Amino acid sequence: MDSTIDKIIAKMPKSLSGKEFTYCPGCHHGIVHRLIAEVIDELGIAGKTLMVAPVGCSVFAYEFFDLDGTVAPHGRAPAVATGMKRAMPDRIVFTYQGDGDLASIGTAEIVHAANRGENITTIFINNAVYGMTGGQMAPTTLLGQKTTTTPYGRSAKANGYPIRMSEMLATLEGSAYVERVMVTTPQNVIKAKRAIKKAFEVQIKNLGFSMVEVLSTCPTNWGLTPIEAMKWLEEKMTKQYPLGIYVDRTKEAE
Amino acid sequence: MKMLFKGSEAIAEAAIRAGCRLYFGYPITPQSELTEYMSRRLPEVDGTFLQAESEVATVNMMYGASCTGKRVMTSTSSPGFSLMMEGVSYMAGAELPAVFVNVVRGGPGLGDIQPAQSDYFQATKGGGHGDYRMIVLAPHTIQESVDLMNLAFDLADKYRMLVTILADGMLGQMMEPVEFPEMRDPNGVPKKDWALTGASDHEPRKVTSFNIDPYGLEEMNLRYQATYKKVVENEIRYEEVNTKDADIIIAAYGTMARIVKTTIHLAEKEGIKVGLFRPITLWPFPYKQINKLADTVENVLTVEMSYGQMLEDVKLGVNGKAKTPFYGRSGGVVPTPTEVLEAVKKVMVGDLNG
Amino acid sequence: MTKKAYIEIDSERCKGCGLCINACPQHVIRFSEKFNNKGYHYAELHDPENKCIGCAFCYNMCPDVCIVVHRLVKEESKV
Fold it and tell me: Across the strands, what pairs with A53?
């Protein structure tokens, strides 16, 4: 006689510490944290992975993973990761950074890490605003977007244009794999996980610098509900930041 | 066997002998030769050299490398060290060991490329933010620079502290015969139970200078303070030359102390007994020792290539027991032994500020 | 309908963001009338007709890893 067994097909990944996330309701940080942990578990690399958290809402990120980790000064994570990787080349090293950390104060560090083809992986959370400090303009803030330091809407004349980091870093020959994704629907979440897994595989194979830029919501500082925020992201942000693979040099290198 | 070596390069070789196999750095006069030497020499000993894109990147690469428990160093000069101050504060808070070499040049700002001692405050009183300390060693000859490298790395590892070798453009650029110690095994570094090496054989470890709970941060700070207390109790180093029955004591360090050693001979010819008190550790500063010496003289003259930075520590140490006049040149100007003797004579007749 | 799958939601961990409710194709998750200790109306499974198919869309969208997805699979018949 056939009986049924209760099989758990999805639960807290092993590489997450289980500590409750300090993020706002509906913030996409948590989804991406989980995807990174799932990927690390599936690739079996937790025991040799080092992580570098940024300054920003995810400054506590190193507490949410059961991995050896540290937190870098604002923007400096790629340099810290470089130091780790050069000291222990057989370890997997990743940085997790927001748009202020990576595209403002840390532009030099990310450009040069990518340019050196540093065998590290960067997960870049782009939510077009400075979250932790209360909603100021980020380099990735859209034109016309109101923030606490652009109360009249961002103007190109005063504040320049939103920076497309994936496109920029893809022009550097050291960049082996750069893709931009979003996590607004389960299907997109699965696609994003594939990208993150590929990025870590690029590092495992020593093919150069890999980055996944994840367009993310900041419901609190956008002044929208989590669901409205995802709509805004899909309608407005993807126009400025098209999804897709910006460079994939992995075939040439292999 | 003695070899003729430029100061910058001798320091580099000595660091390698001390077991350092990781160097991150950025070219800056007057120490670029140290960076260049490392780029040639480290591959020869299976070490890693990386020219970073800036001093900001350099100190953060050191942070990362130090996290993994390896010995790491950099070298720079004044403007570069200023850029590193953020990283210094973070490393101090995270209790990460590392060695910095600052080959000081005239400042402030872009300044010039000649020797100076105007970064004493920055090194000893904290150029970075927060309640932290760095061990500061001040060699006065190239041989001493070499001899202090083993100590620098050992102290850094022992106390989980940053150590700065405060040199200057003179020491960096001059050439002298030196004898190097034996090559130490880089794997002979004591194992660090806090290092980030991947949590395969230990519970996940964190390295951080951050604690959102003020009582937690206070605890971290009390831990650092306890370490600093131990260092003050155990690691003070200094040299006294000709101080017994001296007519006047000169407090000087680094290249300035070397110049004063010549002044001592010149003064002797004129019947003046000049004693030299030379701190080797600028932090921890030998307050007790200079205080004792102040019992024996009317004047403790501080001579620096600055406008009076170590002077303040001398005053603290002397604590009113003697007058504390000052003579200094800055901006990259190096006083001559004769100039110092003139200052001594002025002091002896009460003609220099006390 | 026979029960094919179900989910457990950690109600104390949940922040009531609604992403799971929005993503569920079977519409079997709803906001609870009750509050948790954080003060949120947490999400809860409401599946009287056993519509849950264990697709894990809710799990995929949950930013706080509150959800465990169970599938009731047929045990292999022993020969």
Answer: A71
A248: tokens are: 């994939």
**pTM for the model:** 0.93
CB < 8 Å to C16, chain A: 25
Interface present between A and C (3 or more CB pairs within 8 Å): yes
pLDDT in tens, A106-125: 999 999 999 999 999 999 99
**CA–CA gap between residue B220 and residue A163 (Å, rounded):** 39
CATH class held by domain B3-234: alpha beta
- Per the document, the length of chain A is 254
- For B82-138, how does the pLDDT look when each residue is reduced to its tens digit (9 = 90+)? 999 999 999 999 999 999 999 999 999 999 999 999 999 999 998 999 999 999 999
For the record, the structure tokens of A28 come out as 């996409």
CATH code of the domain in which A45 resides: 3.40.50.970
Write out the residue range of the structural domain in which residue A101 sits.
29-253
Please report all neighbours of C, defined by 3+ CB atom pairs within 8 A.
A
Overall fold of domain C5-71: Alpha-Beta Plaits (3.30.70)
What is the total count of domains within chain A?
Answer: 1
The domain ranges of chain B are 3-234, 240-348
Distance CA B47, CA A125 (A): 35
- Report in angstroms the alpha-carbon separations of A74 from A69, A130, A160, B192: 16, 13, 22, 26
CA distances from C63 to A31, B271, B343, C20, C57 (A): 4, 82, 72, 9, 12
CB contact under 8 A, C22 and A227: yes
Query: Is A119 inside any structural domain?
Result: yes
Q: Which fold has domain B240-348?
A: Rossmann fold (3.40.50)
CB contact under 8 A, A189 and C72: no
List the domain boundaries for chain C: 5-71
Beta bridge partners of B278: B239
For chain A, say whether C37 makes contact (Cβ under 8 Å): no
Torsion of CA A205, A206, A207, A212, to 10 degrees: 80
Q: B91 to chain A: which residues are within 8 Å by CB? A: none
Q: Where are the alpha helices (DSSP H) in A142-243?
A: 156-159, 165-170, 186-204, 219-222, 226-232, 238-240
Dist. CA A97–CA A58, nearest whole Å: 8
How far is the C-alpha of A152 from the C-alpha of A147, rounded, in Å? 8
Q: Which residues pair with B300 in a beta bridge?
A: B249
